[in-house]
Write a structure and sequence with these properties.
peroxidase activity, 14 strands, four-stranded antiparallel beta sheet, alpha+beta, single chain, binds protoporphyrin IX containing FE, binds manganese (II) ion, metal-binding, Dimeric_a/b-barrel, globular
Length: about 475
């Protein structure tokens, strides 16, 4: 039976084409792979034949999604350590240099992130301001990830050893995952990140249902069609699949963001512990992950809740319309589309933080003690249609002051990732209260330093080169 893309996949019971698909799919697409230590290598090919030979040899260092899922199972059962993740993706320019013609043809993928049209659409900064390694034409990315620096670095060095002289490393990013005092992954502004994800595996949906706060209010299940596309250049696109991969190096000016939190708390007259609510109004969750729409204060962190919508917060008296997570997933309340269509914009986020800093992101210290550069997020996400997922989220939601669509209200840009001219936004003074106050625009503290769109093909395609 052909692979059913219209629903989630039960990988433990998969047979036939679905099992073959998992055996040729790259890991980290359907389910996140451990990558607290990550190297992202951006490559340019100088010679088609040598680049092909390199990619074939790289498959000897890669494992399948099936092998990854088996490793996760073995880890749970007997604590057995897994092997490193090695992922490989090609840009449209990379496919062309290799001389591959029938590669996947997503419209945004074909134009690439550096194209003037992409820049206009997303309000991205000029290409000339990117870090030097991202200013030229990128052909491929190789991701190496693992739980320890040692294992990751060893595999990275093996891969560098495979590179012929005609393949140039244009840039390398080193991801370093961070956790809070409870061991939850956080980003550099100090907030729990990576919690809300579309889930493509039936087993993961069941685990969410039975072992967390449940799925009866917000069901994270998503069909395979939202992340997988047939790998048209592979030997058998009926069983060989891949996914479009977005990479964006987003630098975070933590000092500026923490100052903005303090300024907002001052504007609203928040005092004591309630000052934490200012930052929560920018993100939509408190630092510990507690959703602001469900609770006036933090503390609902175990497990970090995700079983919520904005249905009992229609006027945004608890969580502002413009909060980062409300802009990027309105959970049925966006006002522009039917909830089922709105869900189609969600993507599988696989980011990792980068950069080191001396201060504890969650400590109560003045903004001056925060880094103003050198740290950020290696934003990574898998999509089946870039224009309807990543690009839609950035351009039509985050950058659009009029979203969500609410009569008489202009929510403003996403205070975290919005690109474009920022205006003032409204906030409720007391959680759930009726008094609103308008606050000055939140200054932009996230800056794009480079990136591109890639396709992460099937292992069968890479071996066939
Ligand atoms: C430095 C940049 C960014 C920071 C600091 C950041 C921070 C966060 C945090 C703290 C969360 C809450 C954790 C969770 O619900 O899983 C979150 C969720 C999310 N972010 Fe971001 N993010 C960044 C960039 C982006 C970008 C570029 C996009 C897409 C264009 C994006 C889309 C989302 C989505 C879709 C969610 C989940 C919302 C939900 O389902 O409720 N983020 N982000
Ligand atoms: Mn704080």
């Amino acid at each position: 039976m052909s692979v059913d893309l219209s629903t989630t996949l039960s990988w433990t019971t998969a047979t036939g084409d679905a099992a073959t698909m998992l055996g040729e799919l790259q890991p980290n697409i359907l389910k996140a792979h451990v990558r607290d230590h990550l190297s992202a290598l951006f490559l340019a090919f100088g010679d088609a034949a040598e680049a092909r030979t390199f990619l074939v040899s790289l498959t000897g260092k890669m494992k399948s999604a099936k092998a990854h899922l088996d490793e996760v199972g073995a880890f749970k059962a007997e604590g057995a350590a897994g092997t490193p993740y090695v992922g490989a993706g090609l840009t449209a320019a990379g496919y062309r240099v290799l001389g591959v013609e029938n590669f996947p043809q997503d419209e945004a993928f074909l134009r690439g992130m550096a194209a003037a049209e992409t820049r206009r659409k997303l309000n991205d900064p000029p290409h000339s301001t990117f870090d030097p390694g991202y200013r030229g034409e990128i052909h491929a990315v190789v991701l190496v990830g693992d739980a320890t620096d040692k294992a990751m670095t060893a595999r990275r060095n093996e891969i560098l050893g495979l590179l012929p002289d005609s393949v140039t490393v244009l840039a390398e990013e080193t991801g370093l995952g961070r956790v809070n005092a409870r061991g939850e992954g956080i980003e550099h502004f100090g907030y729990v990140d990576g919690r809300s994800q579309p889930l493509f595996l039936t087993e993961d949906v069941d685990a969410e249902k039975n072992n967390t706060d449940g799925i009866n209010v917000w069901n994270p299940a998503a069909p395979l069609s939202q992340v997988l596309v047939p790998d048209t250049a592979a030997p058998d696109p009926g069983v060989h699949f891949g996914s479009y991969f977005v990479f964006r190096k987003l630098e975070q000016n933590v000092r500026r963001f923490k100052q903005a939190e303090a300024d907002l708390a001052d504007t609203l007259g928040l005092t004591g512990d309630d000052r934490e609510r200012a930052g929560a109004m920018l993100i939509g969750r408190f630092e510990d992950g507690t959703p602001l729409t469900t609770q006036r204060e933090d503390g609902a962190e175990s497990p970090v809740s995700n079983n919520f919508t904005y249905d009992s917060d229609r006027a945004a008296l608890k969580c502002p319309f413009q909060a980062h997570i409300r802009k990027t997933n309105p959970r049925g309340s966006g006002g522009a589309e039917e909830p089922a269509d709105e869900r189609l914009h969600l993507m599988a986020r696989r980011g990792v933080t980068y950069g080191e800093r001396p201060d504890d992101p969650n400590a109560d210290v003045p903004p001056a003690a925060r880094p103003s550069g050198g740290v950020g997020l290696l934003f990574m996400a898998f999509n089946s249609v870039l224009g309807n997922q990543f690009e839609f989220t950035q351009a039509i939601w985050a950058d659009n002051p009029g979203f969500p669509i609410v009569e008489g209200v202009t929510p403003g840009l996403d205070p975290v990732i919005g690109q474009g001219t920022r205006g003032p936004s409204d906030y409720t003074v007391d959680w759930g209260g009726s008094a609103q106050r308008t606050a000055d625009p939140v200054p932009q503290s996230v800056t794009l330093r480079g990136g591109d769109y890639f396709f992460m093909p099937s292992l069968a395609f890479l071996r066939s080169l």
